[in-house]
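Reopening this ticket.

The earlier resolution said the output was attached, but the attachment link was broken on my side. Pasting everything inline this time so it's all in one place.
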Amino acid sequence: MNKLIFKDKKSIYRVSITQKLMIQIQKLCHSALPNETGGILIGYYTDECNLAVITKIIKAPSDSKSGPTWFYRGTYGIKQKLDALWKDKKQFYIGEWHYHPNSSSKLSYQDIKQMTSIANSPSYSCPEPILLIVGGDFLSWEKSVYVFPKGRDYIYLK
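Inline output:
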């Protein structure tokens, strides 16, 4: 299975996602046009804790709201899905994904603010959340991945 690997300059932080999951995300993005959309990244860390493996995405819950330049991810049904994934597969929340329609996959101020809040939130239990941003449209997709270590600046993964 074709995998994309994103990593920082020193390969301290690495993220793996399959092409199949990226295509699934791109289809959700295309169907949301002209609005933003997003959801949750599910996965696990390798035993060495040097690679986050994204195994599943959760699309925007039904109570999510969006416009052409903003997205608010809802929470309806998320706890039940996360609990089931942990119980059945020992997989868990590792971050967020969202879409910047017809635009760059670069971080916005709001993205930084939200992900920093998640990294610092005890309720998420995720001190290094990952953010995958998809930009562009069905003719030309762009992807960016970031890690937000608690108490530190975000890190861009190439």
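Reporter confirms the inline version is readable. The longest strand covers residues 92-101. Residues 61 and 77 are 7 Å apart (CA to CA).
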